[in-house]
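If you are new to this repository, start here. Below is one unmodified record pulled from the training split, so you can see the exact layout before writing a loader.
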Amino acid sequence: MPRVVDGHVEHGPFVSPYAYEWFIEGEVSAAKGQHDQSAMAFEAAAAAPSDDVLLMTRLAEEYELSGASRRADRTLTLARRFYPGSARVALTNGRIQEHRGNDEEALSSFAHAQELAPTWDAPVVAIAETLIATGRTQRAKAILLDLVGTSFAARSERAQRVLIDLARRTGDAETLERALAFDPSSTPTQRARAAGVLALESGQPALSARMLGEALDTPENIALWLRALLESGDRDKAVAFLATVQSERLGGVIEHVNLLLDTGDLDAALRLLDAAGTSPRVDYSKGRALLARGDYIEAAIALAEVPLGAASFEASRIAFAECSMSQDRQGAAAEALSQVPHESLAVRTMLAEIYVEEGALRAGLRLFDPKRPAERAALAGIFEQAGRFEEAAAYYANVKVVTNDEPRLRARVSAEQLASHGHRRGAIAVLERWTALAPDDLYARVRLVELLQADQRNEAADQRGRRTLEVIDDPLLLAHLLAVLRSPAAALR
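And here is the target side for that same chain:
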């Protein structure tokens, strides 16, 4: 009789309500990872005299997963005797072989299942998953793309999910965009954003900008596109776009101002703010722009206008503290920060910087929990500021970045993770790209000199080091760089 299995119709013997109830219980237990209980349930379901291939193959799988390999083999042999040409039996044999580590035998069984049922997608997905597990991701992508491109949507959903997951894990933004295109519910805007985010996370800002450039119909996509342009070094294009675009297209005046601040076009940002009405958001943004321009007194006046209770109050206190610290007024900075709750990571980071300035590193470190991934980046920066560069590198290597993290952090984390795994030249390449875009990141420039020394590229290290010496004001960083340049062996890890 016909019944629906895995989303498509197949024919098999009648299954009694009693057996079906046990079958459902077996699947529920399997989903929970309770394979012993699942096997017992399938045993009860298979006890009915139906000789159903689905029940028998599921029982064989659960026997295998529960450690009863001999029972699995006997059950599968019985299923093969009743159904010698069953694709489901071949598929189950492949899964059992894969569980035992016999990957090539598993692939052979999956291929046989595909021959027996050319329109069934499960064997193809199983082949792809095995290829992924054995490191053959490019072949898996090709197989899955072919499947989702030629199958009906309902039958290729699982293949599409596997392909999307594979693209995300391998940082393949182009494959992700192609996979999402097979989903009729997705839009070009959504696909461009998903692929653009992945490209940025994978260190491919130019690719991200290209993908997003064709879908600039939402403020979110425009902001992400501009960020990708900046990270890829195409600042001029970003500035030119912001000079002519209407604020409404970006979500409003404040959003326009924030993007101008990101590109460093401070004068244009201030002109927009001067024409805007008065509000806490305007005061905060004006303070940010003036702070970035170095007008600390005017910035402090604007930031002081942000009232308690405003959404930008905490950010305004942090910016006010930056103004105070820029004028060596640590006490005023601490007072500003005391006005907001210390649960905020940003507030604690600023307080820790004040502690370090006062020579109280331990007090600053006590503000953070190194077990929390989000706080390791703050600790890395604090150690760096305190001149503890080895500890800083170790913390950077253990940070887990997210899409919204600033480019500086993502570059440092990527470099230290590569270096910590012995991929020194990869780390050097990351820092070379980053310091070309952000020459004011002196910590990154000094770290690049260290890695060049460690890679025995002494001439390049010396040239970069001497250029960096000319612009360093921080005495701790200066002393560290001088030590590196005087003793190449000191930089070896």
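Two things worth knowing about this chain: Residues 164 and 176 are 6 Å apart (CA to CA). The longest strand covers residues 2-5.
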